[in-house]
Design a protein that fits this description.
The protein has helices at about 10-30, 35-40, 45-55, 60-70, 85-95. By secondary structure, it is an all-alpha fold. The chain is built from five helices and no strands. Helix 1 crosses helix 3 and helix 2 packs across helix 4. The longest helix has 20 residues, at about 10-30.
Length: about 100
Protein backbone atom coordinates (compact mmCIF):
# COMPACT_ATOMS: atom_id res chain seq x y z
CA UNK A 1 0.00 0.00 0.00
CA UNK A 2 1.46 3.39 -0.96
CA UNK A 3 2.36 5.81 1.76
CA UNK A 4 0.16 8.80 2.22
CA UNK A 5 1.92 12.13 2.12
CA UNK A 6 1.66 14.24 5.25
CA UNK A 7 -0.64 17.23 4.92
CA UNK A 8 1.21 20.30 3.75
CA UNK A 9 0.61 24.00 3.82
CA UNK A 10 -0.89 25.67 0.77
CA UNK A 11 2.35 27.57 0.09
CA UNK A 12 4.36 24.32 0.14
CA UNK A 13 1.88 22.65 -2.16
CA UNK A 14 2.09 25.57 -4.60
CA UNK A 15 5.91 25.41 -4.58
CA UNK A 16 5.88 21.70 -5.41
CA UNK A 17 3.29 22.10 -8.14
CA UNK A 18 5.35 24.93 -9.69
CA UNK A 19 8.53 22.83 -9.48
CA UNK A 20 6.80 19.90 -11.15
CA UNK A 21 5.51 22.15 -13.94
CA UNK A 22 8.99 23.56 -14.51
CA UNK A 23 10.44 20.04 -14.66
CA UNK A 24 7.80 19.02 -17.19
CA UNK A 25 8.65 22.08 -19.31
CA UNK A 26 12.35 21.19 -19.09
CA UNK A 27 11.55 17.70 -20.40
CA UNK A 28 9.43 19.06 -23.23
CA UNK A 29 12.09 21.62 -24.22
CA UNK A 30 14.59 18.79 -24.51
CA UNK A 31 12.08 16.78 -26.54
CA UNK A 32 12.39 13.79 -24.24
CA UNK A 33 9.61 11.29 -23.67
CA UNK A 34 8.49 10.25 -20.22
CA UNK A 35 9.72 6.73 -20.97
CA UNK A 36 13.23 7.98 -21.81
CA UNK A 37 13.48 10.19 -18.74
CA UNK A 38 12.08 7.51 -16.45
CA UNK A 39 14.64 5.00 -17.73
CA UNK A 40 17.53 7.46 -17.33
CA UNK A 41 16.38 8.33 -13.80
CA UNK A 42 15.72 4.70 -12.89
CA UNK A 43 12.15 5.66 -11.96
CA UNK A 44 8.82 4.26 -13.05
CA UNK A 45 6.71 6.36 -15.41
CA UNK A 46 4.01 6.83 -12.74
CA UNK A 47 6.64 8.18 -10.34
CA UNK A 48 7.91 10.57 -13.01
CA UNK A 49 4.33 11.69 -13.57
CA UNK A 50 4.05 12.38 -9.81
CA UNK A 51 7.27 14.41 -9.95
CA UNK A 52 5.86 16.48 -12.81
CA UNK A 53 2.65 17.03 -10.83
CA UNK A 54 4.60 18.10 -7.73
CA UNK A 55 3.33 15.25 -5.58
CA UNK A 56 4.68 15.62 -2.01
CA UNK A 57 4.87 11.84 -1.51
CA UNK A 58 7.77 11.56 -3.99
CA UNK A 59 11.22 11.46 -2.40
CA UNK A 60 13.63 14.35 -2.78
CA UNK A 61 16.06 11.90 -4.38
CA UNK A 62 13.64 11.41 -7.27
CA UNK A 63 13.50 15.14 -7.87
CA UNK A 64 17.31 15.32 -7.78
CA UNK A 65 17.62 12.47 -10.29
CA UNK A 66 15.28 14.24 -12.70
CA UNK A 67 17.24 17.49 -12.28
CA UNK A 68 20.46 15.58 -13.01
CA UNK A 69 19.08 14.04 -16.19
CA UNK A 70 18.14 17.52 -17.41
CA UNK A 71 21.57 18.86 -16.43
CA UNK A 72 20.21 21.46 -14.01
CA UNK A 73 21.18 19.87 -10.70
CA UNK A 74 23.56 22.77 -10.07
CA UNK A 75 20.54 24.89 -9.20
CA UNK A 76 20.31 22.96 -5.92
CA UNK A 77 23.56 24.56 -4.78
CA UNK A 78 21.75 27.88 -4.45
CA UNK A 79 19.15 26.45 -2.06
CA UNK A 80 19.92 27.81 1.39
CA UNK A 81 23.28 29.18 0.30
CA UNK A 82 22.48 32.70 1.46
CA UNK A 83 20.77 32.04 4.78
CA UNK A 84 20.58 35.60 6.12
CA UNK A 85 18.00 34.79 8.80
CA UNK A 86 20.07 31.86 10.04
CA UNK A 87 23.17 34.02 10.22
CA UNK A 88 21.35 36.71 12.18
CA UNK A 89 20.05 34.16 14.67
CA UNK A 90 23.51 32.67 15.00
CA UNK A 91 25.05 36.11 15.58
CA UNK A 92 22.50 36.87 18.30
CA UNK A 93 23.50 33.70 20.13
CA UNK A 94 27.22 34.51 20.09
CA UNK A 95 28.63 35.61 23.43
CA UNK A 96 29.54 39.27 23.71
CA UNK A 97 33.24 40.01 23.40
CA UNK A 98 34.89 41.10 26.59
CA UNK A 99 37.27 43.99 26.60
CA UNK A 100 40.64 43.00 27.90
CA UNK A 101 43.14 45.03 29.87
CA UNK A 102 45.70 47.00 28.00
Amino acid sequence: MPRKAPPSFASETRLLIDLGARLRLARLRRRLTTTTVAERCNLSRPTLAKVERGDPSVTLGSYVRVLSVYGIQGDLVAVGADDTLGRRLQDLALPALRKGRR
